[in-house]
Amino acid sequence: MPGLEFAVHAFTPFNLMLALIGVASGTAVGALPGLSATMAIAVLVPLTFTMEPASALIMLGAIYTGAIYGGAYAAILVNTPGTPSAIATTFDGFPMAKRGDGDLAVTLACLASVVGGLVGALCLLFFAPPLAEVALKFGPVEYFWLAVFGLTLISALSEGDLFKGLVGACLGLLLSTVGVAVVGGDIRYTYGSQVLLGGIEVVSGLIGLYCIPVLIDMVATPDPHLQFSGATRGLRLLEALRLSWRGKFNLIRSSIIGTLVGILPGAGGSIAGLVAYSEARRASPRTEYFGSGEPEGVQATESANNATVGGGLIPTLVLGIPGTPPDAVMLGALLIQGLRTGPTLFTAKGAIVYTFIYGLLIATLLMLPVGLLIGRYAYKSIISVPKAVLVPSVAFLTVIGSYAIRNNVSDVVIMLALGVMGWVLSRFGFKPSPIVLGLILGPIAEQGFVQGYLIGKAGNNVLGMFFGRPIALAIIALSIISVFSPLLARRLKARRAHTTDAE
Amino acid sequence: MPNKRHHDIAGIGFAIGFVALGVAALYGSREMSPLGSVFPRTVAGALIVFAFAYIVEALLRGVEQPARSQSESTLRRALLVGCMLGWALLLTVLGFVVSSVIGFALLSAVASYQRWTWKRTLLYLFANAVVVLGFFALFHYALLVPLPKGLLF
User: Fold this and answer.
1) Is residue B138 part of a domain?
2) How far apart are CA A14 and CA A216, in angstroms?
């Protein structure tokens, strides 16, 4: 193993303690909607100034990995992704919790996050320099097609109501254009309002569209928020381990997808989770159960988003290009510690870098006991707290979470307005997920599209720019498969049933 | 018994609204630069096409009437939204802590289906104080988020 001689430094009691504190605090931060991993790392960076560089990085890495996992709690238990990375966790996690399997979903998410985190960190350890080159092969056009690929998930999410899903996605894309344009700087659709000048903040939109409809429905009936059998079933660890073993290929595939997407600067955990979910759904023999509480859906998303931690650190350490926003903050911490990123970092500062990577592996392993413990108490709290406390507590988190992102009350009002709109539309079959997808992927798609168009126009080859590059063509092919595979699967199933009946 | 198929009148109504929204977005993009308008115009065009496609599909195919529970309280839903809107608007007027304590208490009342007793009321007030003050301390002192002070606190 590379740098094995430095592993022992990661096992000092001080570094182990930092990893433990980092994972626990990161998990707690990630569980609160509106508090992101970036915010947690940025706030804690000054605390690490006086530490040894490797110890400082271990703590920041542990917070990061814990926060990405923590996002799953809110996604599973209250249908609100604690971080954007956990969006796709809501698709199956919340239905599982609604039917009384919230404890199992939380445990599955923890196991999947550990697997994903380990795969990402091992890729960082073994393949960092060659994998970093993938980041350089992605131009604006590839990002555009990657965003389109993410949008193709709509066909999977809105089976039977494809046009409503597409309308929702267009609405989300249109909402993402409000404010200052990502390329060109035009002021769009603000109608003179200062409030809309900054655009619709993605996390506020996400909190509103997912969480407010849940609150609106929670107060409408005296029924409990989640089903609970009454029997104490513990962590359901054995059942989760059995399901994880059954879904091992799904876990590995999703972790690799997460690592690769994490390497791409700007793509992030939300796209990784969505792509992995889409692929898991396509490859699974239980396709029809996805979206209604299928454990494989939770496993795919959670392993992919935690794999982006290691994946995102690859271009950060090798090229000095942060893969995800938290990586950008970590890059700042690296520079403050006097480390110059680049291909020589692994040889010139091997002691620090390898100690950090082994520390990240330890932090990921520590996530198992810490995550299971916190998960158990989170689940027990949600099912035992009366609605008269749960509703205002969740509402309070939506208010403070959407306010704290930009310290702006307007974001709270926009969050509420989007939430009410999402609830109304949802009653008439326009689900919130396609709108959220459009809102998140809109800026990535627009930036890639406009930049690709400009480059193509300068070379008098716009079509060749969009349809003549090998990686772009591969993503287009995957998008087409993703759109039509549910249709084909349905046709094949119907034909098989017909043949069986005829026999 | 299978649900009867019917035309999704509400869905068609919304789709017509989305067509109008697409047209408004196209109209709103006329003063933008070519770079700034290409994406919203494409999306607005797609919105109009897909909304039309849904209208045609809904007219030709029909949909099943979804089963709705009759025992849902619309009044409580409206009260929740009203309280949250008031809470958001009063954040900068009254201050974060005071508006949150009031908002929390009102939402407790909206969400409660149990008989109010002294013990229960005190418990809810205690939870209110712990949640609001706990998160205020976390955000204000630990995370250094400048929460609005307003007239009171």
Assistant:
1) yes
2) 47
